[in-house]
Amino acid sequence: MEQPVQREVVEAARRGDHEAFEVLATTAGDRLYAIAYLILRDRQRAEDAVQEALVHAWRDLPGLRDIDRFDAWLRRLLINACADEGRQRRRWSTEVRMIRSEPSIDDDAGSLADRDQLERGFRRLKPEQRTVVVLHFYVGLPVPEIAETLGIPSGTVKSRLHYATELLRAALEADARGGVAANGQPA
Amino acid sequence: MTQDRSVDERISAWLLDEAPEQLPDRVLRATFERTYGSRQRRRFLGRRKIGMLRITPALVAVGAAAIVIAVVGVMLFPRSGPTVGGNPSPSPSASPTISTPPGSGASPAPIALGGEVAISRIVDGNTDIYLISADGSHAERLTTDPAVDGMPTWSPNGKTLLFTRTTSMDPELSDVYSIDIATHKELRLTSGGGRHAGPLMTPDGKRIVYDRSPSAPGFHVMNSDGSNDRLAYAIHDDQWTLQGSWASSTGVYAKHGDFDLLVVDIDTGSVTTVVSGGAPLGDVALSPDGTTFAFRSRRGQGGVFLMDTDGTAYQPVLTTYVKGPIGWAPDGKDLILAQPDGWLWVVSLDGTTSVRWTEGISSAWRPSPSG
Q: Label partner for B5 (CA 20 to 30 A): which of A156, B91, B124, B256?
């Protein structure tokens, strides 16, 4: 969507127009859902997080000072909603999730192994590490923008990103050395 | 951050592969009903026509023009709408099996249960604890800290409320607090970083058990003033959760994974299995008379169920998705359920009557003050 058009729509939604808000929510919904799912690793909770973020967006939109920052603001609401979802359960991503065992047509042995190892490695990350990984590697945000989204220093983002990447790298390298032990720890 | 392009690219590719493509329409529908209610505007019928704007480049220009026309139309012909930023108007729930009762805003719909309830509620983006009367005649904000205050539980004498305060957006950083209801004086009972959550006072009111991690992970016990903290039961995975009820003076119900309900003795550290291998268990709540468990389950399409304390006499109450903690009304005839719409519902045990009661994400009924 062209930015000027979005600006008009955000402005209209801010004034309380339902159709305008519907356009914004519908346009952003899929992207928000993907981010929430990747962080929470649970579809039901990801749906709840998106819904919470959008409800808060409707309520708080009149207080948004810079409507050009709508996307970043909405992302921040979503991250907060994901954190709230995490509080509903003792920890994030404690559910057992089946890793696909049947390769799809375009799978090769390497990508399948990657998925398994990255899945295991990702689940060992702390919630705040997952968040920066998703914002950086999936959304494509640079470090300063992640820092602004999360309200933390850039150095903290770099640190979390570095640690998380190293852990994921270790998971991949463990696979290259011959797989993982049954407990999910590198062999 | 890009020292190894190969690893970065593999992470990016994996995330792209893992990401779901579409948010279900029902989530958008429920969102719009929560925000301004279906009675005030046309029903949301689905968004795929709008979604095409994003996935079909040839339609982007047409879509943008349509949006501009719509916005201009809105500007030229403004309608009277709800006050933006206020509480949502009451509207039908997304759940097909719960009907909408009368009631408005955050004020509780009158229910004939009596007594007072502590409720964790989000108001203007701030999650705090409120004390309200069941009939709506009294409401009092107990906590005002900008942090997230939740998981309220009462001392047996009803004079003190325990709660968990999460001081940042990280759910792993929290502490246990108590507040004296008469004076509103708060007392921080834990410290040192990490997660301290889910406080529950022993039946004699002298000690508190809570859940701690990552340092010395497990169920801890301390005196009611926070002194003499010790690890009562060490846990070695993240599948354990306290369930907020006591099986005996020292035995607290806890859940491990999705299928095992156990009793952990906080003095001896022994564990006794109560239920294992049956229906998937969400939050479990013991009835006031100690004879029945109410529990959430994701079995089938999800719902709320009852079973005897020995795991028998399985009985459905509702077959609709329930999000949060389950509580019992003091008369043992109704359940207090948190719904995805951010409201607490009062539902009869047979599921035939339901009242969309008041906004909240968790609740705890106050014992009659004594002593």
A: A156
pTM of the model: 0.54
pLDDT for B51 beyond 90: no
Say which residue, B129 or B146, is predicted with more confidence. Answer: B129
User: Within a 13 Å sphere around the CA of A127, how many CA atoms are in the beta-carbon half?
Assistant: 26
Q: Is the pLDDT of residue A181 over 50?
A: no
Q: From CA B276, how far away is CA A83, in angstroms rounded?
A: 30
Query: What residues of chain A lie within 8 A of the CB of B54, using their CB?
Result: 1, 27, 30
Amino acid sitting at position B371: G
Whether pLDDT at B81 is above 90: no
Whole-angstrom CA distances from B102 to A69, B82, B92, B114 are 39, 18, 10, 18
Rounded CA separation B12/A161 (Å): 13
Distance between CA atoms of residues B222 and B211, nearest Å:
11
- Which strand (E) or helix (H) includes residue B297? strand B292-297
- Ordered by where they begin, the domains of chain B are 7-72 (no CATH), 116-365 (2.120.10.30)
Q: Which pLDDT score is estimated for A38?
A: 92
Q: What is the pLDDT of residue B207?
A: 98
* Distance set, CA B353 to CA B96, B131, B133, B266, B335 (Å): 13, 25, 21, 39, 11
- Residue numbers of A between 153 and 172 with CB closer than 8 Å to B: 158, 161-162, 165, 168-169, 172
B102: left (phi over 0), alpha (psi -120 to 50) or beta: beta
Question: Smallest Cβ distance to A19: which of B23, B70, B240?
Answer: B70
Q: Taking residues A30-45, report their average pLDDT.
A: 89
pLDDT value of residue B170? 60
pLDDT of B52: 31
Whether the complex's predicted ipTM surpasses the cut of 0.85: no
**Most confidently modeled of A9-23, A95-109, B248-262?**
B248-262
Query: Is the CB of A14 inside 8 Å of chain B's CB atoms?
Result: yes
Among positive and negative, which fits the CA dihedral B49, B53, B59, B62?
A: positive
Cα gap A117→A123, rounded to integer Å? 10
Residue of A nearest to B172 (CA): A91
